[in-house]
Every structure is written in structure tokens, then in C-alpha cells.
Write a structure and sequence with these properties.
heterodimer, A: alpha+beta, 2 domains, five-stranded antiparallel β-sheet, 8 helices, B: mainly alpha, MetI-like fold, two-stranded antiparallel sheet, ABC transporter ATP-binding protein (chain A)
Amino acid sequence: MAQIVINNLKKEFGDFTAVRESSFTIEDGEFFMLLGPSGCGKTTTLRMIAGLELPTSGEIYLDGEEISQRPPSERDIAFVFQMFALYPHMNVRRNISYPLVSQGMSRAAVKAKVAEVARILGIEDILDRPVGGLSGGDRQRVALGRAIVREPKAFMMDEPLGALDAEFREHMAEELRALHDRMGATTVYVTHDQLEAMQMGDKIVVMNNAVVEQFGTPQEIYDKPATMFVADFIGSPSMNFLSFDGQIGAGANEVDMQGASFGIPQAREGFAGQMALGVRPEHIHLADDAPYRGEVVATEYLGTTQIVTLTTAGGEVKARVPSGQVAQPGDTVGMTFDPATITLFERGSGRALRSALNEGVLDG
Amino acid sequence: MSSYSVTEPSRRMKWVAGVLVIAYALITMVPLAWIALTGFKSPADAISYPPKYIIGSDSEAGFQPTLEGYVNLFTTRTRQTPEFLDANPPETWADDIVRQYGMVIVGPSKFGERFLNSVIIGFGSTFLSVFLGTLAAYAFSRFKIPLADDLLFFILSTRMMPPIAVAIPIFLMYRQLGLSDTHLGMILLYTGVNISLAVWLLKSFIDGIPTEYEEAALIDGYTRFQAFYKVVLPQAATGIASTAIFCLIFAWNEYAFAVLLTTANAQTAPPFIPTIIGIGGLDWPAIAAGVTIFLLPVMFFTILLRKHLLRGITFGAVRK
């Protein structure tokens, strides 16, 4: 089990930069998510940690040892592929025992180890089956078995649930998390599914366009996004951005937007120009007498809550309100926001302005 | 009423397909069957008109099977005087057959030797083509090779003219290098001709094997070469088998270079078979017997590898 430190890691494929100087630390035993849209460099980062790609520059420390240029076989890291990559010409037992065979472990020891892993994963009954006929979930378990059997220092998982059916995914996600909690092994998990990342991860790195946008716990990333990209990518529906042209001084506790005044977490820096006020749907309340107004365009009923879509002077807004509250398309209603939850962004760069809310999270 | 299905052909379609396949099989099999039959005829029956094709029948189209062709194929014989024949009674069944023509067996023919040459050269060059082809195809498929496309085109371009077009230069070159009429020379020549086919065929097979398998093996603690032969090779078995069959068929049947470059030591069966001439004309049964035996190795080789041709073992292992 190990700590992994990524320092200024960079990967170029010819003229294309897949990962641009990224740094973050994965603590021992953490379930660590690399989250981002496709092509953002998350899989390349994972492959560099595992040794399947060599970085152009930068260092990777595994338990304090620099490993970035070593072949994968000398890193003691296991990898679970998105397509599982089970050896098709071997049965389940041989697939799982294959990493042990390469270490020259005795036959009896291999057998005992495989039996133990099969018991943990609940696949004892399929050990002698060929891998070709297995269901998606069983293949997933065999792939996991092959990874955990040799007790590596860390696990790399490249969208391991991506190939599963939606309903089975949830179940497998729970199983994976339970397995991790039981083994306590450092796990790096790549996904493009923000829900999966929030649900399973201890820490999340959000990447976009080869750059690490933010690094923190799921709650930090949800509540205190560092950029508009992160705010938009995490959460469903995503954060609302009300754009306006205004100014704010350091230490201000409120901001004027289109003639209405809103309370905000105390600003730590001043800014004047194009800004966006970011507020999550659940932090918007409909109030008839509020000065900031919008017209209801649509409502979506979700059981206990509903999503109300409104058009305002700052753009379209989605609010999550109790389903008991009456909102008809065509109505004009007032809105209030929870002041402590608001993040202001600089529209040009997408960067969050420093405030009492995100102090300590940004530039961390 | 039969229910309509997109994937399952209708009964009528199956019937039509069956008839077509059987008709095609008949058309291709008849010459082979005719050769196999001729091998068991006497020289007179082999050229009789109307033709005889029913084994053991007394009817007009029937003939009595005999091993004469095979005996003539494998032996050399001389004509002897009746006194000599009376003094030396026949010892084997083969002697009995040649006595009818007033002859005795004086030794084996060259056929066994030539056949062995064919086996050595055919299988040797097939092995070498597939071995080198697999390594080259793997390299082209997996590594970033400078000018890879140009190299592949160059490799293919060696097949853009009939090989015999360069027969004279090769003849002169082989004479200079002392490779004329040697097994090594013929193996190298057939390998040279086959390797472009092998590289191209195998590259497409290896391209179809996901790289994840090798990566999984690398992660599991194996070296690149171990990953290649333990994980990639078993999955390329289908491609290797079909490539080997194509290479063998070419090398086995090749005639022109064999005539040109081999005379005694390394002559293969194809140029030898037509030289079997009996007394008073071509000995058709012996030639047919030679052709029949010559067909067998390729046939067995193909049957042996058939299961690899029919199903890809990678099926269902990677979820797409």
C-alpha cells in the first residue's frame, strides 16, 4: 500500500499535449478519482502511473521512489482495463493466477491465493469456465481478481464500470467501494461520470484539456468549485451561471447584479468586469416578493422535488424546489439565493474569485 | 406458415445454397477423383475410349484396379530375356506386376527423394515465412516505425510482378552464390516470395488483437517478448494458420523456379513428376499416382489447421 505523488507530470504525443504539467498527491489507502470529459488526459495520466506510457517530463513517486521511467512490471501496480482484457485463451482460474505465475510462485501457493480471491469476489463456481461466455459482471470480477491477487501497492482502474449495463453499474460500484474499504489499497480510478466520482471517491481530480482544474474531496469540489468548468461538470442539473457586468471590492459582502443586491461570502479579492454568479439549483428559492425576477419556462417533476427552469436577465436558471410549490410556465416569480453558497467567477478565464467560501481550497 | 426471421435464412435459400455448394464441390473434386482413379488403372485402361471409371466392374466402363502405377512410380525397371526371368522367380507382389511386361525391378526411383525435397523445402520455407512474417507484422502493428507505410508498400511491391520475371537475375545470382540446386537456396527463394503475403496478412490479424491484452500482461509482470508469445501469439493462431496454408500451397506447387534452379540434389516433386516416362509413351498411371501422393501433405496440413480457420478463438473475450 502506498502514497503516490505526481509532480509536474507532462505527456506530449508529437505536437499534441495530452497532459500539461500536473501535480497532485494520492494518499495511502485513498480511493482517488480522475474525473473529466473524454480526451482530457485522465486516462493518459493513469497509464503513466502504471507505466504503459512514459511521461515526457515530470516525476511519479510511489512510496517515495521515483518510478516514472520504469517498465510496468517493476512498479507493482495493478491495472483494471475498461474492456477487462481478460486473456481469451485461458479460463478464469488461469487468468487470475497469471500475475502470480510470472512471479514464480509455487503451484500450491498460487492455488490457495486464487481460491482466496475467488471467495472474496464470490466467483468460486466459475473458476474453471472459459472467459468467453461470462456475463459482464463476472468478467469485471475476474478482472478485479487478476488485479487484487498479487496484492500490489496500488490499483489503477480505467473506467471499469463503463462497459456494464446501467442497472448493474450501481451494484458493481458498491461492490468495488466495499472491496476497497476491505483491502484499504490505494486506488486510482478514471471516470467521466461525475456521479460515480462523487459517490465512490475519497478525493477527486477534475481534468479538462490536459490541465488539472481542481483537486479535492467530493464535497469541496461540489461546494467550492475552482473554475466554471468544474462547477458546470459536477452536479446534475449543473450550477447556474448568471452573467453580469459589475464590480466587487475585496472584503465586500454583497454584489449588485442587474439592479438587485445579493449577499455573498466575503470577497477576498476585488474584480471589475464580466462576471458570473454561480449558484446551485438547490440553493435557489422561489419567493413572490424577491426583487430578482424570472419567468417560468418549464417544470420537471422528480418526486419530492421539481426542477423549475426560468429565464432571467442573467440567462437561463434551473432551480430545485419542493414539488409542493406551485410554479406554472408563464408565471413571473422572484428568486432568492443562499448567500453562503454563492461563488463568483471571472467570465473571461472561468476562474473563481477568492472568497470566504473557497479560501484554502483554491491554489491548494 | 413459417415465421420470418432476419438472421435465419429461409428453407428455400438453404436449399439453393446447399445445391450450389455441392455443385461447386463436384466441379472441383471431379479432376482430383479422376487423377486418384487413374493412379489405379493399367496403362491401357488409363487411355481407353470410352473412358473406364467403375472400379472392379466387368461392364464396358469398368476396370480392374492395379497398383502398377504406384510400382512404376517408386521403382526403376529393365527388360530381361525370358531365360533370365525363368531363372529368377519373382520375390514380391511388385515383382509379379512388372513381370507381366517382361521386366524386373532394379532399384528405387528418384520419386521418394524428390518428394522429401518438396517436404523439406515446402515446410521449411513456410515455417521461415510465417516466423519472420509474424515478427515483422507485430513490429509494424505495434511500434512506431519510421516510414512504416513506405516499408509496407515496398514489401508488397515485391509481389507486383510475376516472380518468374526475375528468374534470369536470380538464376545468375544463385549460381554466383552457390545456392543453385540447394535446399537452402530454394527455401530462401520461396520465403522471399511468400514473406510479403505473410507480413500483410498477419499484420491485419495482429491489428485486430486489442493492445490491452499485452498491456495486461506487462502489468502482470511479463516482459514485452513474453507478452508477445504468451498472449499475442495464441490469439493470432487463426491468422498464422491461414497464412501458413497460403505459404505452403505456393511453395509446394511452385514449378517454374524449381525447373530452372534445381536439377539433381534439391529437385522438388513438381518438375520431377512429368519426367516419369514409361516405355512406349507417357506412363499416365504412374504420373497420376505421383500427383495423388503429392496432394496428400497439403491436404492433411489444411485439415490439421482447419479448426483455426473456421473459428477465431478471440470471440467474445473483449466486450466492445
